[in-house]
Design goal:
Distance between the termini: 50 Å
Largest sheet: none
Number of helices: 14
Organism: Pseudomonas turukhanskensis
Structural class: mainly alpha
Protein name: Probable membrane transporter protein
Keywords: Cell membrane, Membrane, Transmembrane, Transmembrane helix
Number of strands: 0
Number of domains: 1
Radius of gyration: 19 Å
InterPro entries: TM_pro_TauE-like, TSUP/Inactive_protease-like
Main location: membrane
Length: about 325
């Protein structure tokens, strides 16, 4: 049996857990800086983000363009479509960073309505998510919202699933899976809502996390979103702590998003929706730290209610659209 290092101090988080019948939080929640693995992963994310930003800045100002970098920026800032993408990016990341889901679903729906193909929409969303999930994951680590062991168990299987999903979506329409996934998520959403109004004690740790991460990564890349709804919802439904589950899933998402975005670029080329991608990134970067702080401050029962309601409504809507199509 694995020995867990629990923090029994009378902290506000432990008070919440006691009221809901959940066990005390582990020591990493109270002292997040004590974990070198998370620090290394966090600084790796920082290095990757800075490198990507530097590369994009170089491409913008020194690449082979018909217009100069400043002209491209001016054109974007005067485009209503760009500012629409900024609003969608901010809204989607605020929900995703606080509740651990819905960025891909929200942003993909917006891109499809703007005329992008399913493959181009999924590729664009995952390229934008590299930046938003990176900043969001770093914020969650700094605020102590990440469970080191859960993060590591999600990481590799999630990345493998994301690559497989990217390969599939470039070959055929991944929407075939959507009604079945929506039905599963509807059941999980109702189950989480039930947990929010009852005292539920977690008797054992979640099982099959690697398989769940593999499936979640595949669905996310193939359907343009789904990592958060599938993984976060299932883990919380099994009795995991909402706060550290959201933070861990969010941080792992950064690395699997890199895997899927790279796969999309190699298989399908760079998407032509760069203006929308830039807007999604711009809006999401502002929302990411705020959303992580909101996740830290919200009561565990409130998180359960919000997650359960959100996933139930989205899943019911997706099932309705699939039936009426």
């Amino acid at each position: 049996m694995k020995i867990r290092e629990l923090d029994y101090t009378p902290s506000p988080i432990n008070t919440e857990h006691q009221a809901m019948g959940l066990p005390p939080v582990e020591d990493y929640v109270s002292h997040p800086a004590n974990h070198p693995v998370l620090r290394i992963a966090m600084w790796l994310a920082v290095a990757i983000l800075l490198s990507l930003l530097g590369f994009l800045a170089w491409r913008l100002f020194f690449g082979n363009h018909e217009s100069s970098g400043l002209e491209i920026i001016e054109s974007a800032l005067t485009s209503p479509l760009f500012w629409s993408a900024v609003a969608v990016g901010f809204f989607a990341q605020a929900i995703d960073g606080a509740l651990g889901m819905a960025y891909g679903i929200t942003a993909t729906t917006f891109l499809l309505s703007a005329g992008a193909s399913p493959a181009a929409a999924s590729a664009s969303v995952h390229i934008a998510e590299v930046f938003t999930t990176g900043l969001s994951g770093i914020s969650h680590v700094k605020l102590g919202n990440v469970n080191k062991q859960l993060f590591l168990r999600l990481l590799i299987p999630g990345m493998i699933g994301a690559v497989l999903g990217a390969v599939i979506i470039t070959q055929f329409d991944g929407k075939v899976l959507k009604p079945f996934i929506s039905a599963y998520l509807l059941i999980m959403g109702l189950y989480i809502l039930r947990k929010a109004f009852k005292h539920v004690v977690q008797k054992r740790e979640p099982k099959h996390i690697a398989k769940l991460a593999l499936f979640g990564g595949f669905v996310d890349a193939a359907g343009g979103g789904g990592w958060g709804p599938v993984v976060t919802t299932t883990l919380i439904g099994s009795g995991s702590d909402p706060r550290t589950t959201i933070g861990s899933v969010n941080f792992a998402e950064f690395f699997l998003t890199i895997a899927s975005a790279t796969s999309f670029i190699l298989l399908a080329g760079q998407p032509s929706t760069w203006l929308l991608v830039a807007g999604l990134v711009f809006g999401g970067l502002f929302a990411a730290p705020f959303a992580a702080l909101l996740c830290k401050k919200l009561h565990a029962k409130t998180l359960l209610m919000l997650i359960g309601s959100l996933i139930t409504l989205i899943s019911a809507y997706n099932i309705y659209m699939a039936i009426s199509a």
